[in-house]
Predict the structure.
Amino acid sequence: MKKAIGYLSLSLIVFLVPLLFLYIGFTSPAKSGADSPFIRMIICTLLCFLFTSLFTRYIHPFSGLAGLDSANLNLGFTIAIILAVFVEFVTFGNTTVEPYMEGLVQKNTGKLGEGLYRYIKYVFMGGQLLVAVRTFLHSAFLGLLKAIMKHAD
């Protein structure tokens, strides 16, 4: 039971932090009607990708000290990231964010901002999906190694 709490709490962090960046970078400007959240969106996208990538990669030595298995932890991270991306997809399609983003695209037609505002949501979600694929493959590789070592005895 103690290990399950560890797996769930670390996976919950990986689930909630991208949603925090989603709120700061996209939902909050949409609610306030900000004129040009260009830098805010880019910084939140980069920070979300960096946090998710670095946290899922470098937490293992510390979680190993607590007795958590890296393969199971990576599987939990993969599930948490996929759930977060699903929530982000729904959020980007809701009645607050989507019209706001389309308005920004139309306002910046013919400028650099048009491409940014059109594709930043895909970069935001795509970066996390890349991390999810990496953690899933890492989990599968660790599980395979564990199975080989178990049968080698």
